[in-house]
Amino acid sequence: MASSKCYEDRLKAFAVELYKINAVKFGEYKTKVGLMTPVYCDLRVIVSYPKLMGVLADLIIESMPHMKDFDIVCGVPYTALPIATTISYKVDLPMVMRRKEAKDYGTKKLIEGFYKDNDTCLIIEDVVTSGSSILETVKDLTAANIQTTEAVVLLNREQGGEKLLKDNGIKMHALLTMTQLMKFLKEADCVTDETCQKVADYLKASQVDASVLNKTKLDRLKMPYEERISHSSNAIAKRLFKIMSEKKTNLCIAADLTDAAEILNLAEAVGPHVCLFKTHIDIVEGFSEVFVKNLKSIAEKHNFVLFEDRKFADIGKTCQLQYSKGVYGVSSWAPLVTAHSLTGSGVLEALEQAEGLAERGVFVLAECSAKGSLIDDKYVKATVAMGVEKKSLVTGFVCQSKLFVEQPGFVQLTPGVQLGSSGDGLGQQYNTPEAVMLERGADVAVVGRGITKASNPAAAAVEYKKLLWDSYLKRISN
Ligand SMILES: O=c1ccn([C@@H]2O[C@H](COP(=O)(O)O)[C@@H](O)[C@H]2O)c(=O)[nH]1
């Protein structure tokens, strides 16, 4: 521990510099959650003062004599990233980076950089209030098999973050506490007694209740499927969770074959190993009422749900007609369908009101596995919000990353899964079963050609089923 007088003088000088560059401001500021605070810390500005960044890194390094015991460091995105980079460079300790979202599908992981299973990691953060940002980083590092037990932060606002982190097994080291910062600034005549008092009163009155934060946050990624039944408002999601628990499978087959008889053969062969049987009915040659009747009876026999990947994307009324009328009469035999959010919530309303099976569900497409997809963050967020609004109908979302983790009633369906291939040369991008379950948050993985093109589809289905189920068990037991 760096406790010499000289160290304290340097720390004090650093605190004053923070004030001078406006990284610490006093007045009336609105916090993220809309409350007023008399002190505002914006450490982002430090990147414009490289010498000060160097001083900060030195102070942190000196305060953590055991830093070299860690295998890697990781900054909490985004403000702490340059701080972590500077420390990593100075100590020659490798760094990894956590993505806030796995945006560029396919090649990019949630944790970037080189690391090994069970590497120990020191988390670096700028300011801690509740500690929840550090915990989000811990969650992704843990999912990548990286061990995290300690974090070092520039400023502890002393509002309960340290306790929440401790409760979650993370020991926090702080370069400065807010009390110490105020003391230094007062001694340097940067602030008045009145400001110090205001800040002290504010800290006392605005403690984050760690027990509330600990208790109220649900995490679907840690919950067994059967426990999620009671959180769902959609009948098909409930049925799906039950089937997955009973059959011990989270595999959805994409039966993209064009011959009706071959589809029925496939359904018989893989039926015992899947929870969902996904079709694109408009590619089928030989579609008939008998075909539908046979498919339905195989679904009943092997206890899986028929799922037509229709991707409705028109105005509500047209989607309603496409769903219930025409040659395929989808709403009479497929309890599950997909829809785009592109044209607004009228589509969901229309699908709910259409004639057809009494129990039905919709997977809303929030992200696409195809390379160059035009879907952006704003679209993804609006799609999830739209689905949440219609939770009686919405079974879940088709997506590629961990969305809606605190909403265990929804199912994440993730296509683009294949062993031994990264793409099909036509835009499709593949991940392994382990990656979609552990890194991308899938609840159900969709496998198409990985099974349908295998020499023995039933054996391939068993292999995918095992890999996916083992990854799920690993995820909930971590
Ligand atoms: O983003 C998406 C949405 C849907 N799909 C569908 O999944 C299967 C994937 O088949 P593979 O043979 O495993 O590539 C296919 O039916 C797509 O329409 C998707 O791939 N990506």
TrEMBL record:
SMART domains: OMPdecase (SM00934). The keyword Glycosyltransferase applies. SUPFAM superfamilies: PRTase-like (SSF53271), Ribulose-phoshate binding barrel (SSF51366). Residues 250-464 form the Orotidine 5'-phosphate decarboxylase domain. It holds the Pfam family Pribosyltran. Keywords: Decarboxylase, Glycosyltransferase, Lyase, Multifunctional enzyme, Pyrimidine biosynthesis, Transferase. The keyword Signal does not apply. Its EC number is 2.4.2.10, 4.1.1.23. Pathway: Pyrimidine metabolism; UMP biosynthesis via de novo pathway; UMP from orotate: step 1/2; Pyrimidine metabolism; UMP biosynthesis via de novo pathway; UMP from orotate: step 2/2. HAMAP family: PyrE. In the N-terminal section; belongs to the purine/pyrimidine phosphoribosyltransferase family. In the C-terminal section; belongs to the OMP decarboxylase family. NCBIfam families: pyrE, pyrF. This is Uridine 5'-monophosphate synthase.
